[in-house]
Specification:
The chain is of the alpha+beta class. The strands form two sheets. Strands 1, 2, 3, 4, 5, 6, 7 and 8 form an eight-stranded mixed β-sheet that branches. Strands 9-10-11-12-13 form a five-stranded antiparallel β-sheet, with helices on one face. It is built from twelve helices and 13 strands. α8 runs antiparallel to α9.
């Protein structure tokens, strides 16, 4: 093979590095999981280079709501703007890279947008971190820095997913012309979805290895102006965004907000309304509502607040939340959520608000070793 890279050593020796195929697709997949920066973020956006948070390798995708995994995406990443990024890897020797891979990717994207709850992504991220011996919260905080709060980041991921604001990336050692033309065609016409390919060529020589990524699909045309997002919204503005999609869910959100006023101070962001307990020695924020029409419980915050930092008390809180016929909270390690429409029945909403009122009483009068009562009153939304 002709050399593709020349390295000049400190002793002035010149090393010729020749292009060499990967031993298998798994080798390239493993490199991407270990070194996400191989998806050269500056080539995607030179003004604001993309950074990558690996959610999971071989991430399952269902074909129906609540179903098991029918397919798996080679890699699922989130960038710093919480844009879900799907990555499929194929070697150039695999004929699927020419056209079949495109249909596969479209299947993944269409079904993930419809059937992936954000708690699923959170759970897969946590599981991936634990497999690597990492603490999920520390990994996420390191990735976000001072740019965003974790709950806002996940809420934005949910909004991006539902709006189709996602990124599809095909990766290979070489990108054939057939795939190149498809990528360029789709990327011009699928706003807000971005479609790209990366050629990551491998060069070896004298016991050293070099990897050279090149993005494919970016054009010289200026990208469409991004939809502006306000820095924050008021509680009323968040409810109005919900109303545009579902008047019923907006009405339920308004009832929750009205009920919360004696207890909570609303903390608003771009896509969520969080309820923080007022006049409490603890930072207790058990509940939030997002613009996608979801009601969230912050499991990690609740579990870290007295007296729910005791296992039996946390178990009693969770039992009360789940003991509400017709309401199914999708469980996550850090958060759980359900659609506001789950509370269309007045009795269901009253039972939920009763649990939150009861939790406030426990937090304001914490006694860790007391036995929490199993009785409850009825809250009026």
């Amino acid at each position: 093979m002709n050399p593709g890279i020349f390295l000049v050593q400190s002793n002035d020796e010149l090393i010729e590095m020749n292009e060499q195929p990967y031993d298998s697709e798994d080798v390239l997949q493993t490199l991407l999981a270990k070194y996400p920066s191989l998806l050269a973020g500056h080539q995607i956006n030179s003004e604001k280079p993309r950074r990558w948070l690996l959610v999971e390798r071989e991430c399952g995708v269902p074909s129906e709501e609540g179903g098991g995994s029918r397919w798996s995406i080679d890699h699922l990443f989130l960038d710093q703007d919480a844009i879900p990024t799907f990555v499929e890897v194929k070697q150039s020797t695999n004929t699927d890279i020419r056209r079949k891979i495109v249909g596969q990717m479209m299947d993944y994207a269409a079904n993930a947008v419809d059937h992936w709850p954000v708690p699923y992504m959170q759970e897969r991220f946590a599981a991936s971190c634990r497999e690597c011996g990492l603490e999920p919260d520390e990994k996420l905080s390191e990735f976000l820095g001072n740019d965003a709060e974790p709950e806002e980041f996940w809420a934005q991921a949910d909004r991006n997913l539902r709006d189709g604001n996602i990124r599809l990336i095909f990766v290979g050692d070489k990108i054939p012309n057939e795939l190149r033309r498809i990528v360029e065609f789709l990327n011009k016409r699928m706003n807000p979805t971005e479609v790209l390919a990366f050629e990551i060529r491998q060069f070896v020589g004298a016991g050293q290895k070099g990897l050279v990524p090149t993005v494919i699909g970016k054009t010289t045309e200026p990208p469409p102006a991004p939809r502006p997002h306000p820095v924050s919204r008021t509680a009323e503005e968040i409810i109005e965004v919900i109303r545009e999609k579902s008047p019923q869910e907006a009405e339920i959100a308004q009832r929750i907000l009205n009920w919360s006023k004696p207890y909570f101070t609303p903390k608003c962001a771009k896509t969520s309304l969080r309820l923080d307990l007022t006049d409490s020695p603890n930072t207790f924020h058990p509940v939030s509502i997002d613009t996608g029409g979801h009601l969230w419980t912050y499991n990690k915050n609740i579990q870290s607040t007295r007296p729910f930092d005791v296992a039996k008390n946390w178990t009693e809180f969770r039992r009360r939340i789940d003991d509400n016929p017709g309401v199914n909270f999708r469980h996550g390690e850090t958060y759980s959520n359900t659609k506001l429409s789950s509370f269309a029945d007045d009795a269901a909403l009253s039972r939920f608000l009763n649990v939150i009122a009861w939790s406030i009483e426990q937090v304001k009068n914490p006694t860790q070793d007391k036995q929490i009562s199993a009785s409850s009153d009825t809250a009026q939304p």
